[in-house]
Amino acid sequence: MSREHYNRIFELLQKHHQWFREAIPLIASENVPSPAVREVLTSDFGNRYAEGWPGERVYAGCTYIDRVENICIELMKKLFRAEFVDVRPISGVVSNLVVYTAFTEPGDTMMALSIPCGGHITMGKKKLGGTAGAVHGLNVEYLPLNYKELNIDVDRTKERLKKLVNEGKTPKLVMFGASVFPFPHPVKELADAFHEVGATVGYDAAHVAGLIGCGCFQDPLREGADVMSLSTHKTFFGPQHGSVVSWEKHADKIKRATFPGMVSNHHLHAVAGVAVACAELLEFGEQYARQVIRNAKALAQALYERGFNVLAEHKGFTESHVILIDVTKQGDGGTIEQELEKANIIINRNLLPWDIKEGRHFMHPGGIRLGTSEVTRLGMKENEMEEIAEFMKRVVLDKEAPEKVKADVAEFRKDFQKVHYCFENAVEAYEYIKIR
Ligand SMILES: *Cc1c(COP(=O)(O)O)cnc(C)c1O
C-alpha cells in the first residue's frame, strides 16, 4: 500500500516536469532556477541547523555552512549596493514579518497598498486575515492608487498621511512595493514626508528584486528607503527564500527580529542556492533583466494589437516584468485562467484595482496578470512574445479549442528547453533529476 503511494508520488512529479517542458510559464511570481541552483538544493545543507549569525552559531557542524552564508551575504550586498543584508528569512512573507517586527510594535499603523490595488496578503488588515494585521497586530491604512497610472498617487498619499497624523494615527511604517508592480513606486517623492513624521520607509521588492539588483528598475535604498524585503525566486531567479536588505545602523534590530524572532533553521540549502543565483545575477543579470522588460513590453504590445485590453497603454504598458489585462469583455479572469491552462499556457487571474467596488470576487476577477521572467530565462525574445500573444488570442479571443492550441504550444516550446543567463546548463530546465 505505502509502496504504491511512494511510486505514485514520483510518477506525479515526473508528469509535472513533462508538463512544464511543454507549457508556457507566465506566472509573474515564478521563475526557473539554473541546474546549479537545483544541484545545491539537493545537498546536505538542507538537513542541518545553524541558528544565529555566521561565526556565532548555536549549533556545531557549521564550518562550511558559515563560509557559504558569508559568500551569500557578500554577493547580496554587492548586488544591492547595501551596507547590511540578512539572508536568513526563509521567504518573502517571513522577510516582511522581520521588517514589521524590527520597525513596529503591535497596535502601530502601517500604510501599504490594498490587495485589489496590487498589495500582498502580507500587507493585509486583520479582518482579511492578512499577515500585518492578523500576525503582527498592525493597523493597516491604504496607500491611494491612481487607477489610470497604475501607481501610488503622490498628492493623495500626502493628504492621507496628514489626515492620519491629525487623527493621532501617525504611521510607524510605510511599505512600498506590490504584487502587481508595472511601474516604479514614488519612493523618492514620498520618503521625506514619511520620515518627517517619524515613519520607517520600507520597500517590498519580492517581485522586482532581480530587476533592482541588475540596475533595471528603481533603486529604493538610494531613493530614501530604510529597509527592503524580498523573495529570491521571482525576478530574482534563485530558490524559494527571502532576505532583508538595509543600512548598517538597522543591522542589530533586523538580526534580532530574524533570529530568535522569525526563524530557527533557516533553510541552509536555499541560502547556498541564493548565493549561486547572486553570482549568476552579478555576471549575467543585466542582460537578463533588460530582456525581461523588453519581453514584457513586447508581449503587452502584441496582445494589445490583437485586441486585448492591456492596461496602461499610454505609458507603454509596463517598466517591469508584469502586465495586467482587463478581460471583462472576454469573460472573467478565473475562467480564462482555466481555458489557458488547458492550452498549456500558465497565467494567473488577478483582481483589478476597481474589482471589489464593482462586485467582482477573487475567484472570478476582472483581470489576468502575466510575467515574462521565466520565459526570458528559457531564452525567449521579442519574436517569441508575438507567438505567445497569438496563442493567447486563439484561446481567449477566437475561442479556439484549447486542446488544439496546446499541440502548437508544445511544438513551439521544443526550442526552449535550457536555462539561460547562467554559468552551466548541462541538464534541461525541467529535466527530472533522479538520484534514488
Ligand atoms: C510574493 C510576495 C511576497 C511573499 O513572498 P513569498 O516568498 O512567497 O513568501 C511578499 N510580498 C509581495 C509583494 C509578493 O508579491
Overall description:
- The chain is α/β, with parallel strands linked by helices and 436 residues long.
- The protein has a domain at 38-281: Aspartate Aminotransferase, domain 2.
- It is built from 15 helices and 15 strands.
- The chain has helices at 2-21, 35-41, 63-80, 92-103, 131-134, 154-166, 187-196, 209-213, 220-223, 251-262, 268-305, 333-342, 373-377, 382-396, 402-413; strands at residues 24-25, 84-86, 109-112, 139-142, 145-146, 151-152, 171-176, 200-204, 227-231, 242-246, 309-310, 322-326, 345-346, 348-350, 367-371.
- Helix 2 runs antiparallel to helix 11.
- The mean pLDDT is 97.
- The chain binds pyridoxal-5'-phosphate.
- Pyridoxal-5'-phosphate (PLP) is lined by residues 29, 91-93, 96, 120, 122, 177-179, 204, 206-207, 231, 242.
Which CATH architecture of the domain at 38-281 would you pick? 3-Layer(aba) Sandwich
β-strand percent reads 5-15%
The CATH class assignment of the domain at 38-281 is Alpha Beta
Q: CATH superfamily membership of the domain at 38-281, which one?
A: Type I PLP-dependent aspartate aminotransferase-like (Major domain)
**What's the average pLDDT?**
97
- The strand line-up of the biggest sheet is 2-10-9-8-7-3-4
CATH topology annotation of the domain at 38-281: Aspartate Aminotransferase, domain 2
Structural class by secondary-structure content: alpha/beta
